[in-house]
Amino acid sequence: MTQKQLEDYLWGAANILRGMIDAADFKQYIFPLLFFKRISDVWDEEFEQAFIDSAGDKSYAELNENHRFQIPNGCHWEDVRKRTIDVGAFLQKALTRY
Question: FRET pair for 63, CA 20 to 30 Å: which of 19, 42, 57, 87?
Fold first, then answer.
């Protein structure tokens, strides 16, 4: 399989998953997910650095002062990934909870 064939195959699969949503409107779904994932990744990176700086003190690493973004308990990207039922409702709750 050539790279072009693979790209065409993946594009076709994305179109099937997208369904009746116009490609231009698809960004309304993807961009918030990308932003949510990035915020979670940044929080994880800051947690890891604070954990190292504090010689393994988890409570220190979780302090709000160590993070640019605050993620409420149960609203991290990994929490959404672990969800197996009502994922859409759970994702919406995670994105709107403050």
Answer: 87
